[in-house]
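Lab manual, section 2.4: Encoding a predicted structure.

Procedure: take the sequence of the chain (136 residues), apply the prediction step described in section 2.3, and record the output as structure tokens. A sample record is shown.
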Amino acid sequence: MSPLGPEKAATAAGVDGDGRIVVVSGYAKMPAGTAARALYETLTLGVLVDLRTHTIVKASSTLVTDVGREWVEEHLVGRRLLEEPAEFLRDVKRDYWGASSGALTQAYRDLVRRYRERLKLEGVVLPEPAGPDGEA
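Recorded output:
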């Protein structure tokens, strides 16, 4: 049975998360030759998500530089995980010129995939996932 209970399982647009904030992480292998690879084999994106709205309320990453971590936080906080994958992916492609951009894209896709999988376990009926670039 869903931890939300049968009376609260609903469509993604109307799920009642009782104010729950959940932790979701996404992972990707870091490219060789990057500063982060010297410290971490894997890039991790960690976010706190409001289950009621599917909105990211806090974000962090294992990028090495403060600027990189701040960029990720600024571009993730406020996004709705079920509605905007293409927008974040476009932002990374257009504006993140660091060597870790591919890993950042992959970690975000992994994060969205993991979030959708857990929602299904909660009994939430989800819209079909977007295509590889986040577009339906």
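Check your result against the sample. The chain has one domain: 16-121.
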